[in-house]
Amino acid sequence: MEGKPEKTEGGEERGRGGFGGRGRGRGGRGRGRGGPRGGASARAGGDDNKEWVPVTKLGRLVKDGRIKSMEEIYLHALPVKEYQIVETFLGSALKDEVMKIMPVQKQTRAGQRTRFKAFVAVGDFNGHIGLGVKCAKEVATAIRGAIIAAKLSVVPVRRGYWGNKIGLPHTVPCKVTGKSGSVCVRLIPAPRGTGIVGSPVPKKLLAFAGVADCYTSSKGNTKTMGNFMKATFDALTRTYLFLSPEFWKVSPFPKSPYQEWSDYLSSTGKGGRKEVSY
Predict the structure, then answer these.
(1) Which residues of 94-120 are buried (b: 16+ CB within 10 A; e: fewer)?
(2) How far apart (Å, rounded) are the C-alpha atoms in residues 236 and 128?
(3) pTM for this one?
(4) Residues paired with 115 in a beta bridge
(5) Four-CA torsion 94, 148, 235, 220, nearest 10 degrees
(6) Engineered SS bond to 183: which of 33, 167, 224, 227, CB 3.0-4.6 Å?
(7) Is residue 201 a contact partner of residue 229, using CB atoms and an 8 Å limit?
(8) Element (H, E) at 250
(9) How many Å apart are CA 173 and CA 129, to the nearest integer?
(10) What is the pLDDT of residues 33-54, one digit of tens each?
(11) Which tens digit of pLDDT belongs to each residue from 90-112?
């Protein structure tokens, strides 16, 4: 009955108030707060099984089959805001690997707040690579966010030849340089069969990009793995910036997908819901 005092083992009455009652109450709340955040479904990525509902025009065109490949998106430099777009085209071929997990701390009035920073690389071993970084309170959340960030940052990697153009492209087309912080990475074409000559970080990223033979040169504080990975990724993104003679000829530039399918987008728009157009 509410308000009735409890009896202890010795027969003495004890009220519900006092320090003991508050202590028990705080302990109960503490157990609730300290439980697993998000539950098992959050750790396992519970939203992955839900059907993808695109929220951008590009996502709608991809889901409805109007855009056939990632190259159409790269041709018109359309920003990708939904990672499901990359999964649609590269899906099973896309592999990911956690490159590094490091704790980072922030000094607060109550002490130090520790979070975890994850670096994840994704690639299809055939000319596409992405690098993602995410910081979160839990390791699993950081990894999951880094994978999504890596898929959103997937870029094409141009490959070429060393010497005669025999067989499939196997190395970088020219010397390229990438920089991040104090780290500077240079990629140099290599003969077929050389392999990737470099430290484990650029080796892994170049393999994800589908580059079989390459010399590497680096300077700066390469012990900082985050900047080392970003510099290598920056160098790979620059492979399409150099216009070699095969790109000199004038080629017809097709219409943008937004312009080509403008009637379709306007007719299939969700009534009453504001769309995000990127």
Answers:
(1) bebeebeeeeeeeeeeeeeeebbbbbb
(2) 10
(3) 0.78
(4) 104
(5) -120
(6) 227
(7) yes
(8) none
(9) 16
(10) 444 444 433 433 445 578 899 9
(11) 988 999 999 999 999 999 999 99
